[in-house]
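To close the chapter, one final illustration. This time we ask the reader to focus less on the individual chains and more on the assembly as a whole: which components sit near each other, and how the overall shape emerges from the parts.
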Amino acid sequence: MIDFWSNLHPVVQGLLKGLAVILVIFPLAGACSLAERKISAWMQRRPGPNRAIVPWFAYVPFLGRFLQRLGVFHLIADGAKFLFKEEPMPGHVNKLYYVLAPALAMMPAFATVTVVPFGAYFNAAGDAVPLMLANVDVGLLAVFAVSSLGVYSLILAGWASNSKYPFLGGIRASAQLISYELSLTLSVVPVFLWINAPGTPGTMSLAKVVEFQSLPGFWGGTWFLFLMPLSAFIFLVALFAETNRLPFDMAESEADLVGGFHTEYGAFKWSLFFVAEYSNMLVGSGVFALLFLGGWNPLPWLPLADFVGWLHHLTGAAWTIHPLFVGLLSIAIFLGKVLGLIFVFMWVRWTVPRFRYDQIMKLGWQKLLPLAIANLIFYALAIALIQQSAS
Amino acid sequence: MAPILFHLFAFLTVAAAVGVVANKNAVNAAMCLLLCLVGVAGLFVQLDAYLLAFLLLLVYAGAIVALFLFIIMLLDMQGRPAWGFQKLATLASLVALGLLLAGLGSFVARGQLEAPNPNATEGVGAALKPYAYQLFTTYLLPVQVMGFLLLIAMLGVIVLSRKVDRPEDTP
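The assembled structure is written out below.
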């Protein structure tokens, strides 16, 4: 098995690995849409989707009814519906860009996954090896660069639809995404100032950030959420705006723009926008977890290595330090954090009402951006002082 | 693998650049510009200049072309007849073409390009520190001048677009 794998051409290896990650992300994004409906329902004290069921599955005692009430079959039903629905093509659209826009939405959402590490295992020497598709030094910069291309799907969808509401949605989306990108980028600079100590080669790698949060000692094990709470807050707010989530739901805003940029879309093209939005949320939450929540470390001040050692000590079983187990454990911890953040996204949706458009622009340019710059200057000075006194 | 990728990206870049100039539809032209920038970024990646590639994507493809599209959509250039070649524009293009041919000719006359020594070049790959060090020491003055120029441009836009307060405008 291992021999067969390592004999494959690197390009084929890369393709297979990419496919594997996409096969995880796509259903996960679909499951998020179901979770969105279910969590919204719970917050509004209604049952939510609870009808669809596979024939005869109801006869399975307890489990059948439980899964039906949980609504898991709605996921399959929705997916099948989107696949087999007739795809209407409105007569007044620009056909090339109308078809291109949903594809453009998916591409950056999936391409960013390549540089996001999602777990780690320990090699024979005891060093943590991050699990990721491409371990490049530019790391976060690549995420920002590629995800910034996602704005074109919204602009083009709005423009190609050639009708009033999508056009307004597209205009709003382009202005909003560009405005909040500045705060998003500035808010993470302190993190990288901190991990790029003098004398080390500079890096933007996300795996390196996690490594810094798993160092021994009090300051080493502190998650950056506690070290830089303001950075984390600005990043999270800008992330909401970048992923077009409520309360920054301006591109879509059902209340005044029908459906915003995707008003003219239906069937599978529409669901592609939907999946892209959730993939963006997943990647964004992943980056947040890596930067501020310690990545795959289970708890603050409890790095993965200590946790695994403790498990091994407790059970005495050899499989607890097998790289495969450690890798799966770290992926599980990381995914747990990501899904927790997804829940926060949905929680905020039903807690904070949607802003008006001028409020969004004012918040982005007059509050968040100066705050991000002040935060950066403060941490630049503080880190310079700390590192000077340390050396 | 690398030569195939180089030819792919080079062709993409040149074809898209021609598309920018030749397209009458402004949105098509902007999208060609985007493709062109992506092609250039791909070429940068092949030169191991990852940082430059991603900065190009982040700043130009991600923000500036998006703003171009935004403006094109706001002004709604659809259905307006394309401007023909004006005398000054034709002259400028001819001068540019002459310069381009002269540059190409000088390369051809020299016969070959000296490959730069990657070990001697600072800031190859994704290493940020050499870039930053250069920016804050050797190239500090040009960076400041560029920043000042951009500031002037911004101030100009603010002054030009400022609405003159008239009594009937205020509610």
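The interface with chain A takes residues 1, 27, 31, 34, 50-51, 54-55, 57-58, 61-63, 66-67, 69-70, 73-74, 125-129, 132 of chain B (CB under 8 Å). The domain at 1-78 of chain B is CATH 1.20.120.1200 (Four Helix Bundle (Hemerythrin (Met), subunit A)). With these observations in hand, you are ready for the problems at the end of the chapter.
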